[in-house]
Amino acid sequence: MEQGTRRARRRRGGRSRAVLAVAAAALGGVLGVAGCDAVGGDASAPSAGPAEKAAPPPSPAPLWDTSPTSVAAVGDSITRGFDACAVLTDCPEVSWATGSSEQVDSLAVRLLGPAGAAERSWNYAVTGARMADLPGQMARAVRREPQLVAVMAGANDACRATTSAMTPVADFRADFEDAMHTLRKALPKAQVYVASVPDLKRLWSQGRTDELGKQVWKLGICPSMLADPDALDAAATERRETVRSRVEDYNKVLEEVCAEDLRCRFDGGAVYEYEFGTAQLSRWDWFHPSIDGQARLAEIAYRTVTAKQP
Predict the structure, then answer these.
(1) Residue 121 CB neighbours (<10 A)
(2) Is the model's pLDDT at 150 over the cut of 60?
(3) Buried b or exposed e, range 89-111, using 16+ CB within 10 angstroms
(4) DSSP state string for the chain
(5) Which of 21, 89, 109, 186 is least buried, going by the fewest C-beta atoms within 10 A?
C-alpha cells in the first residue's frame, strides 16, 4: 500500500514537472518575440527626435557672380565707340563695355572701379566685325582669363550692301555657338553678358532728316537700311522691314543660344527696345551711339549683370 502511494506521488510529480516545462517554454517564446520587436529584428527602430535629425545640406553657390573681377569685350564698332568722339574714328575710351570716360561710366568701371578697369578690362571688338569674326575675338579674349565676357555683335550681319547679302540666320547661329564653344573650352566658369542687336530701323528714322548724317551714310554705313534714306515707296519700306525682321531673328538666336548656357545672360531685348533719340546718336552719322548713347548701353549691361538670381 505504501509502495503504491509512492508510485502515485511520482506520477503526479512527473506530470507537474512536465506542465512547468511546457509553461516555461511558452513564456520563453513570448519573451523571445517581444525581444525581436523591441530591438529591431523585423521591426523599424524608433525615429530620431528633432535634435538628432541630420542638418540640411548647405545651399549650392550661385552660378552667377554679380561682382566679377575682370571684363573682356568682343564685338563690333559700337563696342569700339566708333563715331562717338570724331567722324569715322574709333574712340574706345568711351566704349560702353570697357571705356574709361567718366561721362560713360562703362560696365567695367561700374564693376571694377576706375583703377580696376584700367588693369583688368580688355577690348577685343573690331569695327566692321560680323558674327563670323566673334570666335577669333573670343580666342584672343580667353587668353586674359576674364571672369566676364561682354558681347555685342550682329549689326554688321544685317548691315550689308543688299538684303540678300545679309548673314543667313543659320550661319549666324553656328558662328555664335562656335564663339561660345571657344570660350567654354578654355574657361568653363567664365560668365557672358550678351547684348541684343539695336533696332536699325529706329536709327534710320532718327537720322534721316539730318543732311550731314545722310552724306555720311553714303560712305557705306549700313546700306541695306540707310540707302536712299528719303525713299518711302513700297520697295524701300519692304527693304527696311526685311532688315528689321532679320535683326529680330538674330536676337532670337542670341537669346536661345545664351539660354543653353548656365553662365550666360541675355539682356532680354533691352538694347533692341531702347528708344535711341538724337541725344544718344553720333552727331556725325546719326547711327552709331554718341557718348550719351554709350552711357545708356553701359546702364543696360550693368543692370543685367548685377541682377539677382531669379
Answers:
(1) 26
(2) yes
(3) ebbbbbbbbbbbbeebbbbbbbb
(4) -HHHHHHHHHHHHHHHHHHHHHHHHHHHHHHHHHHHHHH-TTSPPPPPPGGGSPPPPPPPPPS--SS-S-EEEEESTTTTTTTTSSTT---GGG-TTT---TTT--HHHHHHHHHHHHHHEEE---TT--GGGHHHHHHHHGGG--SEEEEE--HHHH-SSSGGGSPPHHHHHHHHHHHHHHHHHH-TT-EEEEPPPP-HHHHHHHHTT-HHHHHHHTTTSSHHHHSSTT--SHHHHHHHHHHHHHHHHHHHHHHHHHHTSTTEEE-TTHHHH----GGGB-TTTSSSB-HHHHHHHHHHHHHHHHPPP-
(5) 21
Strand partners, 265: 193
Residue pointed to by grid coordinates 554705313: 221
Residue 17 pLDDT greater than 60, yes or no: no
What integer is the mean pLDDT of 259-267? 97
Which three three-digit cell numbers place residue 285?
A: 552719322
Cα separation, 281 vs 310, whole angstroms? 33
Distance CA 66, CA 302 (A): 9
For the chain, give the number of residues: 310
Angle formed at CA 93 by CA 104 and CA 157, multiple of 5 degrees: 90
What's the confidence (pLDDT) of residue 67? 96
d(CA 140, CA 131): 15
Cβ(155)–Cβ(127) under 8 Å?
Answer: no
- CB distance 195 to 134 below 8 Å: no
pLDDT value of residue 282? 95
Place of cell 578697369: 117
In contact, 204 and 247? CB cutoff 8 Å = no
